[in-house]
Amino acid sequence: MKLTVVGCSGSFPSAESACSSYLVEADGFRLLLDMGNGALGELQRHCGLYDLDAIFLSHLHADHCIDMCAYFVARYYRHDGGRCDPIPVYGPEGTEHRLTTAYADTPTASSMSEVFDFHTVKPSTFDVGPFTVHTERVAHPVEAYGIRVEHGGKSLTYSGDTGVSGALTELARDTDLFLCEAAFTHGKENIPDLHLNGREAGETATRAGARRLVLTHIPPWTDPQVNLADARAVFDGPVSLAAPRLSYDI
Q1: 37, 66 contact by CB (below 8 A)
Q2: Would you list the DSSP string of 94-154?
Q3: Helix 198-208, helix 224-232: angle, nearest 10
Q4: Is residue 146 a contact partner of residue 181, using CB atoms and an 8 Å limit?
Q5: Which of the four pLDDT bands, split at 50, 70 and 90, describes residue 12?
Q6: Please, which pLDDT band fits residue 108 given cuts at 50, 70 and 90?
Q7: How many CA within 13 A on the CB side of residue 183?
Q8: What is the pLDDT of residues 40-90, one digit of tens each?
Q9: Which residues in the chain belong to E strands, given as ranges?
Q10: Which pairing describes strands 21-26 and 29-33: parallel, antiparallel, or unpaired?
Q11: Residue 54 confidence (pLDDT)
């Protein structure tokens, strides 16, 4: 598998990065994890507008899904010969309604489903193209899911947005690359079931036995170097910061 960071800023885009979006590729198949603010423009650096094969939305906060409205425009009003066929979109209950409401004036109430084939995510295991996917509910104020993507004996686990979660620890068990949010700063914010800090991300990786940790979803007002140091203090494996256009072979 190849993982490419499309965007990794938390809560709102930074001057350097769009919000959460990650491209996973294997065997010519392209799965996008989240499409937050600014992600659609950045995505076109890595693949064509119509080259995605499936999309997973971890939850329905704007910094993880709102560019789906712009992607609807690109697929519905395709300029070069007609509307795109529906692409599978996996998201929490109410994803279609959320996106339709955010767009506000789709041609009909069901027009989103003409280009997006919506599937409701629950804790489960299923296949997406060549990938085996596991999803688990994580700790966030809205319905939110972490995802584990497996292919060829390797695994990638993406936390989505979460506070400390036993389900996330199990989802990341022995994973080859753990892409984990670290939005908060240890000793500064302490809001249960919302976000992790760098130390908590490192502790989760340690409990899970993850082989590599990549910190993501760090907002512009959080010092990433502090979170990186905090994670390294409690996790013995390789730790790094996600950044736009970085890619990882898994």
Answers
A1: yes
A2: THHHHHHHHH---SSTTTHHHHEEEEE--SEEEEETTEEEEEEE-SSSS--EEEEEEETTE
A3: 30
A4: no
A5: very high
A6: confident
A7: 26
A8: 999 999 999 999 999 999 999 999 999 999 999 999 998 887 889 999 999
A9: 2-7, 21-26, 29-33, 54-56, 87-91, 116-120, 124-128, 131-137, 145-151, 154-158, 177-181, 213-216, 239-241, 247-249
A10: antiparallel
A11: 98
Residue 239 tokens, joined: 């730790």
**Secondary structure class of 167 (helix, strand, coil):** helix
pTM higher than 0.90? yes
| Residue 119 amino acid letter | H
Q: How far is CA 78 from CA 45, 66, 118, 171, in A?
A: 19, 19, 20, 38
Sign of CA dihedral 92, 98, 102, 108: positive
Structure-block tokens of residue 31: 């799965």
Tokens of 158: 């993406």
Q: How many CA atoms lie within 13 A of 122 on its CB side?
A: 0
Note the pLDDT tens digit of each residue in 168-216: 999 999 999 999 999 999 999 989 999 999 999 999 999 999 999 999 9
Evaluate whether 220 touches 14 at the Cβ level (below 8 Å). yes
For residues 227 and 151, what is the distance between their CA atoms, to the nearest angstrom?
30
> Which pair of tokens denotes residue 50?
């119509």
